């Protein structure tokens, strides 16, 4: 993790129930904005080692963190994340395991998030793709 910190404010409109496992809004300053392309569950050589949801999610998240680290950031700098998934039933069945992976790799940082279910991904047999925006301290 990076020793430098950005100021992040979680935005929750008055009267709204708290979000569980994500934030409705995150305002961050100061810093540089890093846009990380959609990462799938393959390794550095673009090889999938599993066709299961949890291992693909874990690898995709590790790929996000590798790009973030190369730019000088850490998981605490992630402000926004969009996940594209090919199977709602498989995602829901793996939710507890995915939560454990999240806790291990990201901790208690809950960025503004969206989960979008799609019919297919470009890279086969990919089941999940994670796109991320981070703010890294100047």
- Give the averaged pLDDT, no decimals: 93
- Described by its quaternary structure, the protein is single chain
Helix and strand content put the structural class at alpha+beta
Order of helices and strands: EEEHEHHEE
The tally of strands reads 6
Q: What is the H level of CATH, i.e. the homologous superfamily?
A: RutC-like
How many strands, which pairing sense, and closed or not: the largest β-sheet?
A: 4 strands, mixed
CATH architecture: 2-Layer Sandwich
**Neighbour order of strands in the largest sheet:** 3-6-4-5
CATH topology: 60s Ribosomal Protein L30, Chain: A
Number of helices: 3
Proportion of residues in extended strands: 25-35%
| Proportion of residues in helical segments | 25-40%
Q: Structurally, how many domains make up the residues?
A: 1
What's the shape? globular
